[in-house]
Automatic annotation (TrEMBL):
It comes from Mesobacillus subterraneus. Residues 412-432 are annotated as: Disordered. It comes from the Bacteria. InterPro entries: Bact_solute-bd_prot1, SBP. This is ABC transporter substrate-binding protein. Transmembrane segments: none annotated.
């Protein structure tokens, strides 16, 4: 017994000694490390086997680059991080830096949930980032976040299937009319069953709103403060989507969707769908699981020639929650996180579109072969990618629009009636 007790005491003593030797790792936000560094608590949802080592390497490099700040990484699951952020802001004990949604910065600024950053930045800092991304972080002329990453949508197409269908594999469809024409040629039927579907507009990382934006000259549902939901082009886009379902048949659409999965089970990789819309990072699945797939990438086809290859984009920002204890040190880390070196590392390792222009261009230069081809296409596509920040006058307006779009796609109402009701519902919710 005495020997056992002595062993337990020795273990506790050893643990205490180790804790004392790892003051930086155990440091809490709002305090300082044993060697006097200010601790900055950085919240992210990047906990996967792929992304966590990448962000922690960036943090480690920053910590080693200077002797005043120690960044502590706190991982919170996707479903929890923003709820806990709002709760911590309300309690007066938030993180110092958090990764947050790019299209809702104005909402948090208006609700005083995020620190204003203008005093830390100047025009030369802003010019590091794509202008359409920087626009999302400003509210009433002041910056409340810094863009971190973004995305865009491309048309991936199977070159082998193109050849089989008598199509030129170097000439993807340029317009909606060509997209329909190509899709019909790419369909492969066995009796009444489809072995391969040429294309379906709601498969992949794309929704009805993307096609409505594409048809309507890049206009979102709210354009320069004015509602643009029930427009002729958006009605036509919904009718166009319904036409695809009518041609293929509800059973075909449902049967194919029931088999969808990731990796080898992805229908484009499995060569069950010949054309597929997705974000640039979809390429990593093609690279890892579709080695024998000969494919090309192109912008989304235009509604008609000259209308523009408009795509929707999203992404994330780095921001300082309201009431953070160390805003100056937090901003120093944000500048590193969104600077060329860290952004290039994130882009190369994650194959992700970054917000820093210099980093994106440097990534293109470093990549080779198909890696370079797809990444360069995504960067070029940012020129015709629209961001749709949520206006403070219409918080959560999507919750009024999406159910009506679903009703139209389910055949419960006509596209025109659905969008008319959606626009009326959004108008009623306008925040005075």
């Amino acid at each position: 017994m005495k020997r056992g007790l002595a062993f337990i005491l020795a273990v506790f003593l050893l643990i205490g000694m180790l804790a004392g030797c790892s003051g930086e790792q155990k440091a809490d936000a709002g305090k300082k490390t044993q060697d006097g560094k200010v601790v900055v608590d950085f919240w992210t949802f990047w906990g996967s086997e792929t992304r966590r080592p990448i962000i922690e390497k960036i943090i480690e490099d920053y910590n080693n680059s200077q002797d005043k700040v120690f960044v502590k990484h706190t991982f919170l699951p996707w479903g929890d991080i923003w709820t806990k952020n709002l709760a911590s802001v309300a309690a007066g004990n938030p993180a110092d830096v958090i990764i947050n949604d790019i299209n809702t910065v104005s909402q948090r600024a208006e609700n005083k949930q995020v620190e204003e950053l203008s005093k830390y930045i100047d025009d030369s800092f802003k010019q590091q980032f794509y202008p359409h991304l920087w626009d999302t972080v400003e509210y009433e002329g002041k910056a409340y976040a810094v863009p971190f990453n973004t995305d865009t949508r491309l048309l991936f197409y199977n070159k082998k299937a193109f050849k089989e269908a008598g199509l030129d594999p170097e000439k993807p469809p340029a317009t909606w009319a060509e997209l329909e024409e190509y899709a019909k040629k790419l369909d492969v039927k066995n009796g009444k069953q489809y072995d391969r579907v040429g294309f379906y507009p709601l498969w992949g990382s794309v929704g009805a709103s993307s096609w409505m934006t594409n048809a309507d000259s890049g206009k979102g549902f709210i354009d320069n403060g004015e509602l643009a939901i029930n427009t002729p082009k958006k009605v036509e886009a919904l009718e166009w989507i319904l036409g695809w379902k009518e041609r293929l048949g509800e059973n075909t659409v449902q049967a194919f969707q029931a088999e969808f999965g990731s990796e080898q089970a992805n229908p484009f990789i499995a060569e069950k769908v010949a054309m597929w819309v997705d974000v640039g990072t979809f390429y990593t699945q093609l690279r890892d699981y579709g080695q024998d797939l000969e494919f090309g990438v192109a912008p989304l086809p235009e509604y008609e020639e000259g209308a523009g290859n408009w795509a929707e984009g999203g992404g994330f920002v780095a921001e300082i929650p309201k009431g953070a204890k160390n805003p100056e040190e937090a901003m120093d880390f944000i500048k590193y996180l969104t600077g060329p070196e860290a952004q290039k590392y994130w882009a190369v390792k994650n194959y992700d579109n970054v917000a820093n222009i210099e980093a994106a261009e440097a990534t293109i230069e470093e990549l080779k072969g198909p890696d370079k081809m797809v990444y360069e296409a995504t960067v070029k596509n940012l020129e015709q990618t629209k961001m749709f920040p949520v206006p403070v006058e219409y918080p959560d307006y999507h919750s009024r629009i999406n159910p009506q779009i679903d009703n139209a796609l389910l055949g419960k109402t006509t596209p025109e009636k659905a969008l008319e009701k959606a626009e009326n519902d959004v108008e009623k919710m306008k925040k005075k």
